């Protein structure tokens, strides 16, 4: 996965694992996942000790790594930002969108785990505004996630997102929501430039050999891929 917007920044490392790399969802007593993560990151020249891995709860909490005080050892957040170099922010996803942020002006990176719950709470905009008060240079890449081809919804979600008619699609009697479009709308409303938001566009449900999909697989134990971004590596 590559974003054209990030191309010229050589110190910026970012990406996402694929299904063949194995599940990346950290949970208690899962040595296999730890081994998958180690193998994936070492291949990319990233020591596992540099990873920042939050406990994700579909919240809109944004943690500034290196600035906010940690409460104990576990960071509970769905958005991460950092101005530190040699730190790699990670989130794990299976249908939710990983959203990557880079502000060249302040050399700040950010990453958000955006499912509909986080998007409803405007998590992407919250991450953006924690990074900088001036949004004109901020670059955002929206990674793979469940696209409107497969995100069928019922009336409860249609109601929650009724402020975004441009993102609601009807096919026959069924309704679908384009979550990446809502992420984009929220960022534009905050003041980001349209040309500074890039959407990768792949659907995690459609691409069954490449991604885990919670909706498609209905797993007993959730399996995820890992998204990451860091600077100065
Ligand atoms: Zn699809």
Could you please describe the fold and organization of this structure?
The chain is α+β, with helices and mostly antiparallel strands and 233 residues long. It has a single domain (4-146, 183-231), classed as 4-Layer Sandwich (CNF1/YfiH-like putative cysteine hydrolases), CATH 3.60.140. Helix content is 21%, strand content 25%. It contains six helices and 13 strands. The protein has helices spanning 31-43, 116-120, 123-131, 155-160, 179-190, 214-217; strands at 12-16, 51-52, 62-65, 79-82, 88-93, 97-103, 108-114, 139-142, 152-153, 168-171, 174-177, 197-199, 225-231. A six-stranded mixed sheet has the order 3-4-7-6-8-12. The protein is globular, with a radius of gyration of 17 Å. The structure holds zinc ion. Zinc ion binds at residues 147, 149-150, 203, 205-206.
N-to-C series of helices and strands = EHEEEEEEHHEEHEEHEHE
Oligomer: single chain
The CATH architecture assignment turns out to be 4-Layer Sandwich
How far the N terminus sits from the C terminus, by CA atoms, comes to 18 Å
* CATH class descriptor name: Alpha Beta
Number of domains: 1
Number of strands: 13
Which superfamily, in CATH terms, is the homologous superfamily? CNF1/YfiH-like putative cysteine hydrolases
Bound ligand species: zinc ion
Our count of helices gives: 6
């Amino acid at each position: 996965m590559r974003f054209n917007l990030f191309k010229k920044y050589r110190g910026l490392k970012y990406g996402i694992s694929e299904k063949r790399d194995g599940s990346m969802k950290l949970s208690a007593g899962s040595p296999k996942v730890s081994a998958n993560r180690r193998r994936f990151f070492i291949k990319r020249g990233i020591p596992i000790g540099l990873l920042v891995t939050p406990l994700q709860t579909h919240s809109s909490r944004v943690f500034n790594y290196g600035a906010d005080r940690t409460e104990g050892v576990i960071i509970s957040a769905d958005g991460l930002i950092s101005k530190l170099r040699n730190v790699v922010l990670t989130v794990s996803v299976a249908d939710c969108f990983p959203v990557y942020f880079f502000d060249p002006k302040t050399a700040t990176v950010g990453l958000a785990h955006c499912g509909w719950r986080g998007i409803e709470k405007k998590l992407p905009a919250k991450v953006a505004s924690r990074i900088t008060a001036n949004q004109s240079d901020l670059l955002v890449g929206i990674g793979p996630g469940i696209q409107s081809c497969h995100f069928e919804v019922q009336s409860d979600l249609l109601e929650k997102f009724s402020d975004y008619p441009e993102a609601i699609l009807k096919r026959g009697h069924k309704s679908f929501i384009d979550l990446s479009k809502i992420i984009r709308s929220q960022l534009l409303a905050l003041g980001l430039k349209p040309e500074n938001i890039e959407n990768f566009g792949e659907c995690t449900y459609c691409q069954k050999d490449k991604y885990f999909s919670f909706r498609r697989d209905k797993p007993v134990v959730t399996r995820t891929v890992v998204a990451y971004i860091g600077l100065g590596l």
